[in-house]
Amino acid sequence: MSQPMKKSTYKSQRKAEQEKLEKQRKFMKKLMWGTGVVVLLGIIAALIFTPKADPTAFDYEQLPVLGKADAPVKIVEFGDYKCPSCQVFSQQIKPQIEKEYVESGKVAFYFMNFPFIGEDSTTAALAAQSVYHQNNDAFWKYFDILYKNQQDEHTLWATPEYLVQLAKDNAIDVDLDLLKKDIEAGTYASEVSKHKSKAIAANVNSTPTLFINGEEFTGQFGDYPSIKKAIDDALAGEDK
Length: 240
Prior knowledge:
CATH superfamily of the largest domain: Glutaredoxin
Helix content: 55-70%
Organism: Paenibacillus lignilyticus
Keywords: Disulfide bond, Membrane, Oxidoreductase, Redox-active center, Signal, Transmembrane, Transmembrane helix
Pfam family, one: Thioredoxin_4
Strand content: 5-15%
Shape: elongated
Distance between the termini: 90 Å
CATH class of the largest domain: Alpha Beta
Largest sheet: 5 strands, mixed
CATH topology of the largest domain: Glutaredoxin
Strand order of the largest sheet: 1-3-2-4-5
Radius of gyration: 32 Å
Protein name: DsbA family protein
Domain Thioredoxin: 39-236
């Protein structure tokens, strides 16, 4: 039969247990603090050293190009042929980019469709894509003519008949019968749709919107000095 534990012995064991628990608590506290520091340092390192999101990727070879395709800087414009702001850009800003950068071989200028104003925005895009697939150089002439002859954005003016007549009146070097057929059959509807989907994926919410070497230009489309600076910065980056 076991003997009852002496009171002094019980107190000693109890004290030893408490001291042991206290040591364990302090150890766990230090461990948790150290782990927290490591986690925090890991987060900071991730923020510092994780590379920025890749620029928007474009399939440049599938787009109409103005200038040399191997130019160090590539600019993509998202536009709508019914958009008044796009008309301003095409007539006032794009010519400056052409003269200063495209003609010198420093910039290749591309266009993608973001038709959203009216149903004939898509019709005009279908016409332009048809011209592009027949003749890249003719596309840019037709591009300028579409904006030159742009009508009120609230009016349905870009009809198949009008778009073909514009090409005929301005001697666009394409097969006009094929142009008419492509518009009416929606030959390049899926292509225009892909352009629009790309715009949405890239968070484009207005036209014109420019991407310079995959990076969105967030300044004003009519502010040429700011656009020029962005191009120069991109060129400087390519030289490094």
